[in-house]
Amino acid sequence: MASLRLLLAKPWIWSFIGALLVWLATITFTGGYGGGGMITAALSLAVFTVIVGVGQMFVITLGPGNVDLSLPANIGLASAVAMKVMDGNDSMIAVGLLAALACGMAIGAANYLLIWALRIPPIIATLSASFIIQSIDISYGRGLQIKPPPGFASFTNWQILGIPVLAILTVLFSIGAAIALQRMIYGRSVLAIGQNIRAAWLAGVNVGRIRFLTYTLSGALGGLDGALLAGYFRGANVDIGNEYLLASIAVVVIGGTSVAGGKANVPGVWGAALFLVLLLTMLNTFGVSAGVRLLLTGLIIVGVITAAGGQTALR
Fold it and tell me: Mean pLDDT across the chain, nearest whole number?
């Protein structure tokens, strides 16, 4: 019992419990049909939310007001850049991925420079940047009909024993992110800044550099996500990243990261991402109309975020 109470005290466990309950409700409704396929599909789609969610988690951990609202536009532009550079050629996959990463890193760096140079809140700076990025994307990617290289498209959909390879790689990446957060100077500096920025500065933390690296990291992960989404969905699209604005923030908070900063939770990002994907699957299975589905999804997300945020504040 003591070990169970200890497990339930972990903030990230509730996101996994929520995902499990949604999955059970769905397979109960279908009489057990398609349960395995549902998990495979959830893992495939959750990957993209986890990648940007981890980047958003690092940004939010920096403290109140820190958030990256440019991710959807970043994803859209990076997807177009990756497809144009790859140009349907398998030999250009690595170059295209590097181009998408570079595009995302440039956006992330520009976000922080706006915050630093103009002394404006991150929410304003990144939102303003998103409009600029989207304008560039519309001009750059208008009419883009380039399909991903066959090898890249196959890789993004590749499965081993029903488990998506992208999910396996993202789990490894998540473990690395957790180690960096808890064991490396950079991660500890992010946590210290989020807990008390002045105390971190007095302790010798280069606050400006850490914040710059964090926004650049978030941008880079957005760029990578854009390239992978273009491969998975067989092409770039200006709107391909739209759903990841709310989702990237929701998975962070639902997963147990404090919106006040100084406390992050990598496993919870995975649980929350699976919860959101399975929730949408459940509503589709129940035959809920598109409008009602969006309304219920929004209400459930807001409710869970409010509850999770309240529990985090109490801790």
Answer: 88
